[in-house]
Amino acid sequence: MAPRDRPRTAGDRRGRGPAVTARPRGPAPSGEVRIIGGRWRRSRLPVGQAPGLRPTPDRVRETLFNWLGQDLMGCRCVDAFAGSGALGFEAASRGAAEVVLIERVPALLAALRANAARLGAQGVRIVGGDALAALAALPAGVWDVVFLDPPFDDARHGGERVYAAALQAAARLLRPGGLVYLEAPRAWAPDEVAALGWHLHRHLRAGAVHAHLLQAADNPAP
Hints:
Elements: E1 32-34, E2 44-46, H1 58-68, E3 76-80, H2 86-93, E4 98-103, H3 106-119, E5 124-128, H4 131-137, E6 143-148, H5 152-158, H6 161-173, E7 174-184, H7 190-195, E8 198-206, E9 209-216
Parallel strand pairs: 3-4, 3-6, 4-5, 6-7
Antiparallel strand pairs: 1-2, 7-9, 8-9
């Protein structure tokens, strides 16, 4: 899946669920995330509490979904290390036909399930457990976008192994042209991602966050 070029499938038009009351513009307060685009735009969702939780900033999400083309109608997405669910719910809001959110922390998992119910998010599936194990259990070759945003503390303590293992797991999942979003506490250089079999398509730095959009070097768009 190249940016701004997404498949439209028979599963595109799923139930939209009940309307969610929008609130005024502006950054969401601590303990909430704000959906910034799509049918749930400006909805604010409570976030569970967990040490080191760091939802993807609004500015970074806005840039990411500009890269992806705003409208994700018909796409199938995976949000591994879901945390607040900001990326997965944003994708669902923008029309993704199926979104799988993976989270291991019980408090965050409960908040994800409550928010999915609140939104009436029929195309969203929430999976509890280890992200790498859950990725390995998903069907191969059918996903358009995989979001990888491991906790920065995990990444620092586990070194590059966390990212390398997650990228390897994601590569199996993607359909031709599929994309991976990688969020990290440092920039990954083109030669580093190339050594793991990826092409660096886009990069953004916003404070301590480095956002990368990757495409598998051996799995280009048809």
